[in-house]
Design a protein that fits this description.
CATH architecture of the largest domain: Alpha-Beta Barrel
Distance between the termini: 86 Å
Oligomer: single chain
Largest sheet: 8 strands, parallel, barrel
Low-confidence stretches: 1-33
Bound molecules: acetamide, zinc ion
Helix content: 10-25%
Strand content: 25-35%
Radius of gyration: 30 Å
Structural class: alpha/beta
Length: 762
């Protein structure tokens, strides 16, 4: 509304603009079906206000905010929503007004009241005012995300809100896969909308260096690109302009960008660019596989330390953040132990071991950054050789690092693998798990140091850009509520159900923003019951709200049987997969869940195990090897059974003497996870369970444990047997220690197996 027009028509227009017509508002069931995520600390519907009706805008707004507050993110949004706006300095003209609060409203605290004639917000500073705007944006109809020129209605209410913890972040790994600048901004927008305020930007890694460094151009010319196993070259790097643009975008949303420059490990891309940075000086490629590599920066070479400082100097010129993440995680010490320069430095400084050398390295960088007014943050391994001075600790291998940091009197950020790793599949970390996270455990309270917040970590080894948002959302939204709203909200009775209801509303907004979240958890699970001999009966059950779909069995030969609905039983004979295209609220999700299964003569027959399965990989219990459910391509799927260091012997009693035509099983091979094939496989059969006869079989892979073997499922089948027996036994010889070429040479290897399939007729 134009001010001149308003002045002309004065009071007449006042009624039309500010309160205007009084159309219906959204009803406001306290905090439940509003789309407010995270939930404000106090939210009261104003029933009495204009008979429960709220503020109506017909497409134009007059706004007032204090001088010096950057509200550009809001005004850009209003323009995209096709709402015309103007700024006023006359309080009585303002439809939306921000006031500087005289009171202490707490961390990023604000009040917001929606009344018939106006929306009033109070905040201590621009950052808190932005959080108030975020709440207001979530109160607007989600359709406004694509334009609402004809206006909107807001429900009358009063909100008082503040952050529980001040550091609420997401780590985005742009190294394992490069993320385009526009995508990084999209992530920042999503974070800001849920009141997260830190983008922890992982910029250097083994598999790619993304940060422009003028003094060392080969870091991005060489270190930003890797050659995949099929010969394709992938990668990319940011320019200084990209970084400036991203920082300006984040700053307008009060999101702090903390760059992570990994040291002294996870640096193979830098070593590929400048081999002299390492202990051996060997020329190594930028790796295209994942893991923890032995080659790290040489901690005894003055040139390497000078390099690191020059890189950090450029980081300081690019990033205004008052903290810089220096990594510090997963640093094998074997190169340092064998390096004359590293050993000489240890002697010179009187260091007792390589862990102390790491602390010395990080202390030197910390002191360098401190001169530039910056503090360092590092992964919890930085505690191992003594806490580097003034460092913030990011606890990821559990909460112990944060608790120790609190005892030592320093700040900590928590992102334990148990709740905060969004690269983990939904099977291990679903939304409910994230929402149950307790970021400040009792053991960390009352000490000189504090847990200042948390992050979820989006590592991208297996997530190219197009997969990232579906992994981040909605799980990061759960963490946003944990960190902003705090335990009074998230530990209240029925909190999670209320959160899911509000998430549904937020999901509508994301759809208008063209943001595509993934599922909240594993959508369906498989129930397997014994069928008649040689068959199993399976039911795919919904494990989330509103999930359905058709369930089919596709045999190993590709034949497709008849289909049933989720929740209905299906009888299965033979080997194949049960598949369901997951539907939520009647709409396809594009997700297909598959469960490898087998109906066979040994399914649900009694087993005798000559070993104890690992507590981490039981396969579901002592019956796992003959439960009708076979291991999938995910070794953590809960179906695989495993042991470490020992052999496996399993005997099944078929109940009767049967005519056995084929025996089949499968193994998992994943050398980076220390999972190897058995050294030998022996099948044997018996009529009486006492005397067993070995079948002429052996592991057909010989010595397959080559350094370049890929992660895979390896089947083993023998057929055309035509033997009669009641008992079948499989004996698996463990491969023993990881071989000498392996990064974990001499460590005990794992053996994974499932299922023990017996094809037979009576
Ligand atoms: C980490 O996940 N290596 C910090
Ligand atoms: Zn060295």
């Amino acid at each position: 509304m134009n001010v001149k027009v308003k002045l002309l028509f004065g009071l007449l227009l006042w009624g039309l603009i500010a309160g205007c017509e009084m159309p219906d508002t959204h009803p406001l069931p306290a905090g439940k079906s509003t789309g407010l995520v995270p939930l404000p600390q106090i939210l009261e519907p104003l029933e009495g206000e204009a008979k429960g009706r709220g503020f109506r805008c017909e497409g134009a707004l007059t706004l007032m905010w204090p001088e010096g507050w950057n509200m550009s993110a809001m005004t850009v949004w209003l323009e995209e929503a096709q709402l015309s706006w103007e700024r006023t300095s006359e309080e009585r003209e303002a439809d939306w007004i921000w006031r500087v609060s005289e009171d202490d409203l707490g961390q990023e605290g604000y009040t917001l009241s929606v009344k018939r004639d106006r929306v009033t917000m109070s905040a201590g500073d621009a950052e808190a005012a932005f959080r108030a705007w975020t709440t207001l944006r979530q109160l607007l109809p989600e359709t406004c995300e694509q334009g609402c020129a004809s206006g909107f209605t807001l429900p009358a209410m009063h909100i008082e809100d503040q952050a529980y913890l001040r550091h609420r972040g997401l780590l985005l790994d742009c190294c394992r896969h490069f993320m385009e600048p526009e995508f990084v901004k999209e992530v920042i927008e999503v974070l800001a909308l849920q009141k997260m305020n830190v983008l922890h930007w992982h910029l250097t890694e083994d598999q790619g260096w993304r940060l422009p460094v003028e003094a060392y151009p080969k870091l991005t010319q060489v270190g930003a690109y890797r050659t995949e196993s099929d010969g394709e070259v992938t990668g990319g790097a940011y320019t200084r302009e990209d970084i400036e643009d991203i920082l300006a975008f984040a700053s307008a949303r009060h999101v702090q960008v903390i760059p992570e420059i990994e040291m002294p490990g996870h640096c193979r891309a830098a070593l590929a660019a400048y081999p002299w940075l390492g202990c051996t000086g060997d020329t190594l490629p930028v790796p295209s596989n994942w893991g923890v590599f032995k080659d790290v920066y040489c901690a005894g070479n003055d040139s390497t330390l000078a390099f690191m400082k020059a890189v950090l100097d450029e980081v300081c010129t690019m990033f205004p953040s008052d903290v810089i993440h220096i990594g510090g995680d997963e640093v094998p010490k074997v190169r340092w132990a064998a390096c004359p320069k590293c050993q000489a430095k240890m002697r010179r400084l009187g260091l007792k071991d390589e862990a102390e050398l790491q602390t010395a390295f990080i202390n030197e960088m910390g002191a360098h950054l401190a001169k530039r007014g910056k503090r360092i943050i590092g992964w919890d391994e930085i505690l191992e050789g003594g806490l580097p001075e003034g460092a913030v600790v990011q606890s990821w291998r559990g909460m112990e690092g944060a608790i120790e940091a609190a005892h030592l009197g320093t700040d900590a950020v928590v992102s334990p693998t148990s709740h905060c790793y969004l690269d983990y599949p939904l099977r291990s970390t679903d939304l409910a798990e994230v929402y149950s996270f307790v970021p400040v455990p009792e053991a960390a309270k009352g000490h000189p140091g504090q847990i200042i917040g948390g992050e979820c970590n989006m590592w991208t080894e297996r997530a190219p850009q197009e997969a990232v948002m579906g992994k981040v959302l909605p799980r990061a939204t759960g963490l946003a509520e944990v960190l902003w709203s705090g335990p009074k909200v998230t530990e209240a009775e029925g909190a999670y159900e209320g959160f899911l209801d509000r998430l549904d509303v937020l999901g509508l907004r994301w759809a208008f923003m063209d943001v595509r979240p993934g599922l909240e958890g594993v959508p369906v699970d498989l129930e397997v019951r014994p069928g008649r001999r040689g068959e199993i009966e399976v039911t795919v059950n919904a494990a989330l709200r509103n999930v359905g779909g058709r369930v089919r069995f596709v045999s190993s030969s590709g034949a497709e049987g008849s289909a049933v609905n989720v929740g209905e039983p299906l009888t299965i004979e033979g080997t194949g997969t049960v598949q369901v295209d997951v539907v939520v609220r009647g709409r396809s999700t594009g997700v297909t869940e598959s469960f490898p299964v087998a109906g066979h003569a040994a399914a649900h027959q009694p087993l005798e195990l000559g070993y104890e399965p690992s507590q981490y990989y039981t396969g579901g219990g002592l019956q796992a090897l003959a439960d009708g459910r076979r291991g999938s391509e995910d070794f953590r799927d809960g179906a695989w059974q495993a042991v470490q260091a020992v052999d496996m012997v399993c005997t099944v009693d078929l109940g009767d003497t049967l005519d056995i035509s084929a025996l089949e099983t499968q193994f998992y091979l994943y050398q980076d996870a220390w999972i190897f094939l058995p050294r030998a496989v022996t099948w044997s059969v018996s009529m009486d369970g006492q005397r067993f006869v070995d079948l002429p079989t052996q592991a057909p892979w010989g010595d397959a444990h080559k350094p370049d073997a890929r992660q895979t499922v390896v089947p083993l089948r023998i057929e055309d047997l035509g033997i009669e027996a009641r008992y079948v036994r499989i004996t698996l010889a463990n491969a023993g220690a990881c071989p000498s070429w392996h990064d974990a040479a001499t460590e005990p290897s794992w053996l994974f197996v499932d299922e023990l399939v017996v094809e037979a007729t009576r």
